[in-house]
Automatic annotation (TrEMBL):
GO terms for biological process: cell septum assembly; FtsZ-dependent cytokinesis. Pfam families: FtsQ_DivIB_C, POTRA_1. It comes from the Bacteria. This is Cell division protein FtsQ. Part of a complex composed of FtsB, FtsL and FtsQ. Its main location: membrane. Residues 254-279 are annotated as: Disordered. It is found in: Cell inner membrane; Membrane.
Length: 279
């Protein structure tokens, strides 16, 4: 080998290239560690140009900056993104570098629609459940309350929007909507009335039951003192059952009340000392 000039030249060239490459890598590493590339700022912007309501400089300084490791070159952008998405009210975040020592984070905030469950979480208008301070919501009125099995959040949201539209015909607003573990629906309205809608046999079950209630509701109010109804059970196939603190007249003054066929779902007994009628 020592007498092979071509082999010696090739070996020398290889060693020289390795040495130069190692020097370049060392130089780049040394340069990247200079103070001028230490992160000088992290700018938070709205992802869609909408003013941020809950994520501010104080939030970033207290909850995020201390968790960011590295400098302009070495900071893990995926780790920074994940860190921002743990901040209350942040739904989604993206991160990019800005020469020479800054990071720019674009944030999409949650927009709260109501509370979820009994543990203080919130439901967003997009059907996401998240944890944040309920007192930070901007709505001065009490938020609607929602509940349901894990994974049913978007279904509950969709049903709430449908019910809100339907009950608007009789100037009522849903305030609570719950889906039981047996997938039975119950809605409470802003007049204090609770409506048992039951389980869905098909896609139109709830819609038909709500339409039936909306159609007869003005008549029920007219026959009841001050229109005060405590509960309505819509699980009957051809009628309904209601309970009220006081009934002014029979629901049908000329004909006996016909008992409706009992629903498949079990019903709760009427509140003691209250009158219950079936239509």
């Amino acid at each position: 080998m020592w007498h092979d000039v071509r082999a010696l030249n090739a070996t020398a060239s290889f060693l020289t290239a390795v040495t130069v490459l190692a020097a370049l890598i060392s130089g780049v590493w040394w340069l990247s560690q200079r103070p001028m590339f230490s992160l000088g700022s992290v700018t938070v912007e709205s992802m869609y140009g909408i003013e941020l309501k809950h994520v501010n400089e104080l939030t970033v300084r207290n909850g995020v900056l201390g968790k960011i490791r590295g400098n302009f070159f070495t900071a893990d952008l995926e780790q920074v993104r994940a860190t921002f998405e743990t901040v209350p009210w942040v739904r989604r975040a993206t991160v990019r570098r800005e020469w020479p020592n800054a990071l720019v984070v674009e944030v999409e905030e949650h927009e709260a629609l109501g509370t979820w469950g009994e543990d203080g979480r919130l439901l967003s208008v997009k059907g996401d459940v998240f944890t944040a301070n309920v007192a930070e919501t901007e709505d001065e009125q009490a938020l609607p309350a929602f509940d349901g099995p894990v994974g049913s959040e978007k279904e509950v949201l969709a049903r709430f929007n449908e019910l809100r539209t339907a009950f608007a015909q009789v100037e009522l607003v849903p305030q609570e909507l719950s889906l039981s573990n047996r997938y039975a629906w119950t809605v409470k309205l802003d007049n204090g009335m609770s409506v048992a809608l039951g389980r869905e046999q098909d896609r139109n079950t709830l819609r038909k039951r709500v339409q039936r209630l909306v159609g007869v509701y003005p008549q029920l109010v007219a026959r009841l003192q001050e229109g005060r109804i405590d509960t309505i059970d819509m699980r009957y196939p051809n009628g309904l059952a209601l309970s009220s603190a006081a009934l002014t007249v029979p629901l049908d003054a000329t004909k006996p009340v016909k008992a409706a066929k009992k629903p498949k779902e079990s019903t709760k007994p009427a509140t003691p000392n209250k009158t219950t009628k079936q239509i």
